[in-house]
Enoyl-CoA hydratase
Amino acid sequence: MSDLMRVELGERCEIVWDNPPMNVVSREFTAQLRDALARVSNHRGARVLIVTGAGGRAFCAGSDIAEFEGLRGRVAEDKLLLEKLVYRQLAKVAVPTIAAIEGHALGGGLELALCCDLRVASEQSKLGLPELRLGVLPGSGGTQRLARLVGLARAKEFVLLGEPVTAHRALEIGLLTRVAPKGGALDAARGLADIVATRGPLATRLAKRLLDESVDRTLEEGMALELDASEAVFGTEDMLEGARAFAQKRDPIFTDR
């Protein structure tokens, strides 16, 4: 078994899929990503996670098409169920997640990026869901997460036409958070990650969860959850540290307590 993932743990964790040039999504890739995400989730010091692909040509170019013929008639049990589980695992990581997209993010690669909270791409990157051109579906969240992010009309344009868009166009429609110079996606993502890592850890985790849950809840339900979360935050030492640091005109030192 080849090693397709590199993991670095710290306040700023990083997962690098290391199968250049295209970093395609195979069954082995997905299984190793599951293990890498478990390592990050079990690391108590984590405050933010960056995911990226090695090589510079592609963040991830989607599924390993060489596997398709062998999946006929049993794609769910041999591919998609595991992918949906692992992609959901990425989406549910408690700390904020950032996709650093150097090169193209196509098909399953874009679906991976959609699981992240923020997305940074280099200016030469292209993003798209070309699956219909191959006679298959974007079946690992593309028909669901994309519309929630950019709206139904834009999502239909992406999926039904299957034409990739430039990074600058993706920024215009809200698919990306930042566009970086060529070769600079990871540095830009690290800059954002370092900002996130200075925020109150518990408040940050709760804010992410509340924002995610706001999509599928009524306003009243969301407001009730927000109240409960705020009460939890106001019982912490970090809340006191934040208030004292503000009064003393210094940067707070949060301890996640």
User: Anything to note?
Assistant: Residues 180 and 220 are 39 Å apart (CA to CA). Residues 75-91 form the longest helix (17 residues). The chain has ten helices and ten strands. The two ends are 41 Å apart (CA to CA).
